[in-house]
Amino acid sequence: MQGFLLGFIATVLAGTGARDQVLVAGLVARLGQRPSLLAIALTSAVLAAAGAVWLAGAIAPQLAAPARQMLAVLVLALAALEMLAFPPRSGLAEPSHSLGAFTIVLVAQQLTDAARLLLFGIAVASLLPGLAGLGGALGGMAVVAIGWSSGQSLLDLPLRQIRRWLGAALLILAAVLAFLLRQ
């Protein structure tokens, strides 16, 4: 249960103002709340979470417990740096009406974002990575659903500052955890 909650909370926090959420909100602001956009975004969130957990499941058995914990802390630091270094764009200049293009861009963004990095780290360190993946999938679905339901009102928030504060907090947490693991 702990992995589930950690996966959900980490995905929601790291997904706040992330590129996938901003992309969904931007398209909704321009094209309206099309149910097909929501369906694709929800499916993509589940697939990205499954990919992160699958990769963790392939790597974790090859590592001893201390190495898995240190890898999780390293991934936490990388996720924090991603949040600090790659702020979300304000929106698309010319949004495509192609659901295929939207799907490809959304999946690519989700596979390389801080939320899925954190989910990977949690799944590597977790005893039950499937529960962490379920929490991450639900968290990712919540993030894109908020983007879909909010539209322009989400884009009006100071997302860069929010992500910077969250990224800084995660970086501090990674430093503290690394110090504690070295003891």
Query: How many structural domains are formed by the residues?
Result: 1
Oligomerization state of this entry?
single chain
The fraction of residues assigned to DSSP E strands is: under 5%
Please compute the radius of gyration using only Cα atoms.
Answer: 16 Å
Could you walk me through the main structural features you see in this protein, from its secondary elements to its overall organization?
There is one protein chain. With 183 residues, the protein is mostly helical. It has one domain (2-182). The protein has helices spanning 2-15, 19-31, 35-59, 65-85, 99-111, 114-125, 129-150, 152-155, 159-182. Helix 3 (35-59) packs parallel to helix 5 (99-111), helix 3 (35-59) runs antiparallel to helix 7 (129-150) and helix 4 (65-85) packs antiparallel against helix 6. The chain is globular. It starts with a helix and ends with a helix. The model has no long low-confidence stretch (mean pLDDT 91).
Question: How is this fold's topology laid out?
Answer:
Elements: H1 2-15, H2 19-31, H3 35-59, H4 65-85, H5 99-111, H6 114-125, H7 129-150, H8 152-155, H9 159-182
List keywords for this structure.
183 residues, mainly alpha, 81% helix
In short:
This protein is mostly helical.
